[in-house]
């Protein structure tokens, strides 16, 4: 992978859109790029894949790129192919793009996203120096080497590499160094071995002795399916999105005995499909139950 250096003023091709020009430069370095909308989010899926109708996986390779013609499936759309980046199918996205993102793992990189001053202080004390890029709230520390992505590995710290995207803030300063074991350990730290038994949901007595309306199969199925979809569509702050969906499901179904082990497993599977660890899933579920008192 080519060292990240100051971007050349003239990319050597007649491209007027600055975000596209940046993406083409990243592609020349072997770093897959994609456009972002306002709010640092990718463009929505194409019509064939809207609302994850395709199930996401059929159009993605293990580490991308997406096989759809337009930017689709978030990080998996990132590409180093200039013909794709400048294609008519991508033109509308570049005209509306507010920023550029890249797939770090696809370019052999790992980004340690430090979101506040406390996280930066911790990194300076614990991690080896490497290329540093100022962001809107903190810093990106970029290392050479790819690994599993993970959110909230420490307060204010995410790891973005495989199956993730990071916003491009510029080439940064300092020389890029090899990915240290200390960063890899952050993503696997304290992982439990076997999966514990599923949580038991207490079934309260239904007032009046009538049947709980939530036992209608279609009603419950819609709730679980909607939570799965929302988790799959979450693009950032995955841990928070998972917690909110667990909280929403429990607030409706947690007190009436509707939920089964199979329903809980579906929610956990959706969360783990977005990169959440089993430990984070269990913690989010337990925290949601505590919050609601169920």
Provide a descriptive summary of the structure in words:
The chain is an alpha+beta fold and 294 residues long. Helix content is 35%, strand content 14%. The chain has nine helices and ten strands. The strands form two sheets. Strands 4, 5, 6, 7, 8 and 10 form a six-stranded mixed β-sheet that branches. A hairpin with a 2-residue loop joins β7 (150-154) and β8. α6 packs antiparallel against α7 and α7 (238-253) packs across α9. The relative contact order is 0.11.
Separate helix tally: 9
Q: Which percent bin holds the helix content?
A: 25-40%
What distance lies between the first and last C-alpha atoms, to the nearest angstrom? 51 Å
Low-confidence stretches: 6-14, 190-211
* β-strand number: 10
Give the class from helix and strand content and strand pairing: alpha+beta
Largest sheet data: 6 strands, mixed
Shape: globular
Radius of gyration: 21 Å
Beta percentage is: 5-15%
Question: What series of H and E elements makes up the topology?
Answer: HEEHHEEHEEEEEEHHHHH
Mean pLDDT across every amino acid position:
80
Write a concise keyword list for the protein shown above.
alpha+beta, four-stranded antiparallel β-sheet
Short description:
With 294 residues, the chain is of the alpha+beta class.
Task: Summarize the helices and strands and which ones pair or pack.
Elements: H1 18-28, E1 33-37, E2 41-42, H2 82-85, H3 88-96, E3 99-102, E4 109-114, H4 117-126, E5 131-134, E6 139-144, E7 150-154, E8 157-160, E9 166-167, E10 177-178, H5 181-188, H6 217-233, H7 238-253, H8 261-273, H9 278-292
Parallel strand pairs: 6-10
Antiparallel strand pairs: 1-2, 1-3, 3-9, 4-6, 4-8, 5-6, 7-8
Helix pairs in contact: 6-7, 6-8, 7-9
């Amino acid at each position: 992978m080519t060292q990240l250096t100051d971007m050349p003023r003239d990319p050597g091709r007649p491209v007027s859109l600055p975000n596209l020009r940046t993406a083409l430069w990243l592609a020349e370095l072997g770093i897959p790029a994609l456009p972002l909308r306002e709010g640092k989010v990718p463009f929505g899926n194409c019509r064939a894949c809207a609302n994850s109708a395709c199930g996401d996986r059929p159009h993605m390779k293990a580490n991308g790129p997406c096989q759809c013609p337009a930017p689709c499936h978030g990080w998996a759309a990132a590409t180093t192919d200039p013909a794709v980046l400048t294609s008519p199918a991508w033109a509308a996205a570049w005209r509306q793009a507010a920023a550029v993102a890249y797939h770090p793992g696809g370019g052999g990189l790992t980004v340690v996203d430090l979101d506040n001053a406390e996280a930066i202080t911790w990194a300076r004390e614990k991690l080896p120096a490497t290329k540093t890029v100022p962001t809107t709230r903190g810093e990106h520390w970029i290392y050479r080497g790819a690994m599993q992505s993970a959110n909230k590995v420490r307060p204010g710290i995410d790891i973005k590499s495989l199956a993730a995207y990071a916003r491009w803030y510029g080439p940064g300063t300092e020389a890029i160094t090899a990915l240290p074991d200390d960063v890899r350990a952050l993503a696997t730290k304290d992982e439990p071995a076997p999966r514990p038994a599923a949580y038991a949901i207490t079934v309260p007595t239904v007032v009046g002795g009538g049947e709980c309306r939530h036992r209608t199969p279609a009603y419950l199925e819609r709730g679980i399916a909607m939570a799965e979809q929302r988790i799959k569509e979450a693009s950032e702050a995955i841990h928070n999105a998972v917690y909110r969906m667990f909280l929403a499901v429990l607030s409706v179904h947690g007190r009436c005995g509707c939920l089964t082990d199979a329903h809980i497993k579906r929610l956990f599977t959706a969360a783990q499909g977005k990169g959440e660890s089993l430990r984070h899933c269990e913690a989010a579920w337990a925290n949601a139950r505590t919050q609601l008192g169920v």
